Amino acid sequence: MRLILFGPPGAGKGTQADFIREKYGVEHISTGDVLREAVKNGTEVGLYAKSFMDKGELVPDEVVTEIIRQKISTLGEAGFMLDGFPRTLEQAKCLEDILTGAGAAIDAVIFLEVPDQEVIQRIIRRQKIEGRQDDTEDLIKNRLRVYKDQTSPLKDFYEGTGVLHAVEGVGEISDIAVRVEGVLKNL
């Protein structure tokens, strides 16, 4: 199973990824986690990525794509789910090239639909729980603008390929998981 979890920041992709990983045993590749780890470790890529992340901007396609290419190449035949990648049409096309070269394709794109105000509240709440201070409300709003400008066109792209499945991402976590399960059991 090769999946993409797609939606705005704070939509619950990581939470649903945990559910999918436990139930289906697929590798969870979180671009955000990979980038945060690179920043924490002070790697060259991490420091470069940090200059964009600090402004609420997306890390350049070529940097993120290379990280994903390396990760996917280590998995062999194993299934995976991508969380936070692709974020642009260019990244989506690069992903297609990566998978085509490996003789594979995406089975489903799960699009978690969550309204902006809910996203802002979730991120602020998550920050308090995790003790993170990397997102102010203005930075969150900027991330949403960037998402809408650069990432939301992916919805049309994947809808055109027939693999997009929109899932309402509001409500109890368990209810959202049931909706996601409804998509996955039909693959």
How does the SSE layout of this entry go?
Elements: E1 2-6, H1 13-24, E2 27-30, H2 31-40, H3 44-53, H4 61-73, E3 80-83, H5 89-101, E4 108-113, H6 116-130, H7 137-151, H8 153-161, E5 164-168, H9 173-184
Parallel strand pairs: 1-3, 1-4, 2-3, 4-5
Word description of this protein:
The protein is of the alpha/beta class and 187 residues long. The chain is 58% helix and 13% strand. The chain has 9 helices and 5 strands; from the N terminus they run βαβαααβαβαααβα. A 5-stranded parallel sheet has the order 2-3-1-4-5, with helices on both faces. Helix 6 crosses helix 7. It is globular and about 40 Å long. The relative contact order is 0.20.
Total beta strand runs:
5
- The N- and C-terminal alpha carbons lie at a distance of 9 Å
How many helices? The count is 9
**pLDDT average, as an integer?**
89
Coarse morphology: globular
Low-confidence stretches: none
Strand content range: 5-15%
Q: How would you spell out the order of helices and strands?
A: EHEHHHEHEHHHEH
Which structural category do the helix and sheet elements fall into?
alpha/beta
Question: In this structure, how is the largest beta sheet organized?
Answer: 5 strands, parallel
Radius of gyration: 16 Å
Multimerization state? single chain
Q: How helical, in percent, are the residues? A: 55-70%
- As laid out across the biggest beta sheet, the strand order is 2-3-1-4-5
